[in-house]
Amino acid sequence: METARNYPLSSLQVNSNQFQQFQPLYAGELPEQEEDELNLGQIWGIISRRAVLIAGIATTVTAAVLFSNVNQTPTYKGKFEILVEPVSGQGASGLSSLAQNLGLGSVGDSGSLDYDSQLEVLRSRKVMTPIIQQLQARYGDIDYEALFGGKGKTPTLEINQLRKTKIIQVSYTDKDPEKVQFVLEQVAKGYLDYSLNQRQTKNRQAIQFIDKQIPQFRQRVDDLQKQLQQFRQQYKLIDPAVQGQQLALQYSSLENQELEFQTQLNQQKVLLLNLQNQLGINPNVALAASVLTQAPRYQLLLNQLRDVETRIALEQVRFTENSPNLQILIEQRNRILPLIREEAQRVLGSNLGGIDPRSFPFQDSIRFNTLQQLIQTQNTIDLAEIRMAAVQIAKNRINQQVEEFPRIVREFTDLQRDLGVATNTFNQLLAQREALRVEAAKEDIPWELMEDIKTPKIPRNQDGKLIKASPKLFINVIMGAMLGLMLGLGAAILAERLNNVFHSSDDVKDASRWPLLGVIPLSDRALQLPASLPIVDSRGTFDVQHLAASPFSEAFRSLNANLRLLSGGNPIRSLTISSAAPGDGKSTIAVNLALAAAAMGQRVLLVDADLRWPQVHAKFGLPLAPGLTELITTNQTPSEVIQRSRFEENLYVLSAGSITSDPLRILSSKKMQALMAQWQTEFDLIIYDTPPLLGLADASLLATNTNGILLVVGIAQTERSEFQQALEGLQSAGTPILGIVANRAPDYTINGYYRRYPMAPPQNYETNAVKS
Question: Is the CB of residue 694 less than 8 Å from the CB of residue 580?
C-alpha cells in the first residue's frame, strides 16, 4: 500500500457543513416473512444432506420388522358369509306396508333391514351366550371377551356387512386351524337358529296384529255400506252420471221454452199496441164496449140518448138556452142518462170503474172485429205471462238441483271410495293372515349360508396348504421400510431443526424476500495478488496466488454488477457490510467486493469500521494504526491514514485504528458523519466493514448514513433464528437493506466458460487457514 502522500485528494480538511443525509434505496418496513413451512425443494435438500441418517433408520426399522415377522407364531383366519334378508319376508313386508298405510305404525319386518342394528344384535351377549356355551364345551378358554375383545384381549371374531350387500360376513382368527373351523361352525349354527326364532316370533306378532284389526275393519265396511244406502234413499240417487245428464237436459229444455214464450209475448205486445192505437181504447174499455154492444136494452137507451142530443143541438141553434123546447129536451137527456148507467151496471156489474158508457162509439162490424182481436191479443199476452212464470219457477228449481248436484256427487264418491278402501284393506288383512299362518307352519331357515359350513373356510394355496393370516412377511417388510423411511425423514427434519442453519443459497432466498444479490462459492481460490500481499478467500484463508478469472472472483464481480444494477438511475455510492453473528465472513466479502469493484474501474474506499474486532488490516498486511480511530480522535488528516492498494490503483483502504472502549462515540460523532459525506463526493463507492448486528448498534448507526446495508449469511454457519432477529432489528431501527449475500455456498454453479474450460490452480498454489 502507498501512504497518504499518494492519496489523490486535493484537500481532506473536515467540514461539518459538507455532510448531507443520504436517501436510502429501500426504506420502510421489512417485507413479511413467510411461515416456516417446508417445500419440496427444502425436503429434497434435507434428504440429500441427511441421506445416511435416513438410510440408517430405514434399514434398522426394516430389519426389526423382518426379525419380528420371522419369529412370530402364524395365525389362521376363516370366514363364512350368510344372506340375512329373509326369502319368505314378503308377507311380513306387505303387512308392514299395509300397517303404515293405515296409520298404525310399523308392524313386523319393515322390509329394509337396519344392518348396523342387526350387527349389534348379533354381537350382543343375549345372542352369543348360547353359542359360547357350545364352544366352551370343547375350548374352555373361549369367552365373550376373547371373541369380541375386552379386559386387555384382542378381538378374534369379526362380524361385518359385506360391501353394502345383503350379506353378513363372519370371520374368526386363531393359531389353531381346527379351532377356527369349529368356532365358525358353531357360530353359523347359532345365527341360523336365531334367524328361525326371529321369523317365527315376527310371524306370531303379525298374526296377533291382524286378528285385532279384522273386527274393526269389518265394522267399518258395514257402517260405510249403511251410509251409502241411506244417501241413495235420501237423494233418490241411482246413477249420478245418468241423473246429472238428465238434469242438464231438463235445464236446457226450460231455457228453450222460456226463450220461445218470451218471443211470443213480445210479438203479442206489439200487436196489442197497434190495436190500441187503431181503436183509441185500452183492453179494459174494449172488453166493456164489446159486452155492451151485445146488450139490446142498452143499445136502445143509447140510441134514444143520441136522438135527444141531436135535437138539443138543433134547438140550440134556433133558440136560446131558456127556450122551453130546449129545456124539455135537456130534461129528457137527463132522464135517459141514469137509465143508461143503470143498464151498463146491470150488464157489466156494479163496478164500472172510470168508464163512461156514453164514451163508447157506435160499433160497426169492422170496428167490432178489431175490438174482438184486441181482447183476444190481451188474453194471449196474459196466458203467455202465466206460462213464463211457470217456466221460470221450474227453471229455478232445476237450477238449484244442478248447483247441489256436485256436492251430492262428491259425497257419494267419497262414500264409495272409503267403502272401496275399507273393503280392500279388509280383504288384504284376511289374505295376510292366511299367508302368515302358512309361513308360521314352515320350518325352513330364513337366513341362508352362501356355502356349506362343513367346507373348510381357511384359505389354501395351490398346494392345498393353509394360508397364514399373519404375519404377511412381504407386506409387513414393505410397510416397515416405508415406516423406516418416514421415521428417517422425521429424524432428518428434527436434526435440521436442531442444527437450524442455512444449508444452501436457496434456503437463504426462501427465508427472506429481500433480493439475493450474490452467491459466493466455497473455494480456496482468491484473487491473484503479488506474493508479498496475500488475499483472503470466502472461507477466511489466505492465498498467495490469485486467479484473476476464477469462479470465486467472478462471483464478486457479479455481486458488484448486481449492486450497480439494483440502484437504477441513482447509483449506490456507499454501503455497509455486516452479518447477524461473528464468523459469517463479512470481512472477506468486504475485502473481495472492494477488489472486484476497483478492478471494474470504480474508485473504491474500504473502511474498516469494526472497531471491536478489526480484520481488514490483517487481510491486506497493513498495521492496525493509524486508522479510523486516530482520524476521528486526533488532528490527523485522511491523507495521513488512508492508503492506496499496490495491486489496484483504484482501491483505497482505511484501517480501524487503535482499539477504543467506546466505538459508538466515534461512529456517531459529527466528524465521522462529515467525513462520510465528504467521501461520498470523492469516491465512486465506499464500503464500510462493520461489527455483527446482534447486540450491537454499530452497523445500523452507519447504515443510516449510507445507501443501505448488505447482509452476509454464512452457509452452514448462520442460524436462521439469528438471521431473523437481525432483520427484525433492522426493521425496528428503520435501516435500509440493499440485499443479502450467501457466503461459502457449496451449491454454487459454474456456468459458461468455466463449465467448458475448467482451470487448474498454479503449481505453487497454497492456502493458509485464517479465520475471518
Answer: yes
Q: Is the confidence at residue 65, as pLDDT, over 60? A: yes
Strands 535-536 and 541-543: antiparallel
Q: Distances from the Cα of 337 to the Cαs of 344, 356, 697, 765, in angstroms? A: 11, 11, 157, 181
Task: Give 204's contacts (C-beta < 8 A, 6+ positions apart).
Answer: 440
686: β partners? 574, 605
Q: What is the pLDDT of residues 650-695, one digit of tens each?
A: 999 999 999 888 999 999 999 999 999 999 999 999 999 999 999 8
pLDDT at 48 over 90: no
pLDDT digits (tens, 9 = 90+) for 386-429: 878 887 787 787 777 666 667 777 777 787 788 788 888 878 88
- Which set of grid coordinates corresponds to residue 749? 454453479
Which pLDDT value is given to residue 637? 92
- Quick one: which H or E segment has residue 376? helix 365-440
Residue 762 φ then ψ, to 5°: -60, 160
Cell of 225: 255400506
DSSP output for 574-605: EEEEEESSTTS-HHHHHHHHHHHHHHTT--EE
SS3 content of the chain, % helix, strand, coil (to 5): 55, 10, 35
- Coil, helix or strand for 662? coil
Neighbours of 587 (CB within 10 A): 24
Name all domains of the chain by residue range, CATH numbers in brackets.
41-72+471-498 (no CATH), 76-217 (3.30.1890), 253-406 (no CATH), 508-759 (3.40.50.300)
Which one, of 552, 536, 531, 606, lies nearest residue 575 by Cα?
Answer: 606
Checking if the pLDDT of 143 tops 50, the result is: yes
Most confident of 189-193, 391-395, 504-508, 634-638: 634-638
